[in-house]
């Protein structure tokens, strides 16, 4: 429920790696320039459909949030899954994002009226470890002021965000794979690991425990969203490392490993797929993915992209898809 496919050669390389294992994904619109009009969105969707090859896979398209007119939203409604709001400058390619939430409430009201979901990258510009926590008041304000607007807190990383989920009926969340596993220690506690650097930054052990507990029980308002965000090695192993982990090829094997370790495999289907289908009331194409305990050696590179868990052997591997 949260995926970056990029454009051009990168898109052609990474799209099949998700399209193979998943029946659909929400495609994030933070391109340069952003996907903020219907024509661009339709071209981008066609490019993804060409890049996915023979795999059965539905790209669920998102518009980049800006102030939209009612006519624009009416025209876009049947072509989009939702609209993604980035605070300006919060993450990769978000310069065109929102500077003041108060200044765009007319568009929130229209989205509420037209039943268009709002997905938010919820971080302030405060101290890096506190950015999500500081944004929670904005989530609460929006959830209260627009009670019929379906709001997703994207890639939550804190215990406080998990707790907020139960406070508002119209508030949901996605969580990534890596935030169930790593903390800031893995990123910067020893030698700096740029391949684990992402926005929001991984937080404290107690945050990870709260996220993991919610995922393992398939908390009904929590959805898996990998936030797989590929960057070329030249943009990761450098000064000014880009934020984002490329997790797409290892998501399912690692989730099975994690849920098995915690005796929670019975909740995996709901976490990865069922909760999202119920929350957003949609049905992706039918697809059965079989994993077996026979080991997956994760490649060091996919082209010029270093994947999460590069060089490791994961006990589980996808062995058939139908
Ligand atoms: C994402 C990207 O690279 O597009 N990066 C990231 O660290 N997660 C953007 C985002 O979702 O913040
Ligand atoms: Zn993202």
Describe this structure in words.
This protein has 322 residues and is of the alpha/beta class. It has 11 helices and 11 strands. It starts with 7 loop residues before the first helix and ends with a strand. N-carbamoyl-L-aspartate is lined by residues 4, 30, 91-92, 121, 198-199, 227, 229, 243-244.
Uncertain spans: none
Shape assignment: globular
**Separation of the first and last Cα atoms:** 21 Å
Query: The CATH topology is what?
Result: TIM Barrel
What are the SSEs and their pairings?
Blueprint: H1 8-19, E1 24-27, H2 38-51, E2 58-64, H3 70-76, E3 82-85, H4 105-114, E4 118-120, H5 131-145, E5 151-153, H6 159-165, E6 171-175, H7 184-189, H8 205-216, E7 222-224, H9 233-236, H10 251-261, H11 268-280, E8 289-292, E9 296-297, E10 313-314, E11 317-321
Parallel strand pairs: 1-2, 2-3, 3-4, 4-5, 5-6, 6-7
Antiparallel strand pairs: 8-11, 9-10
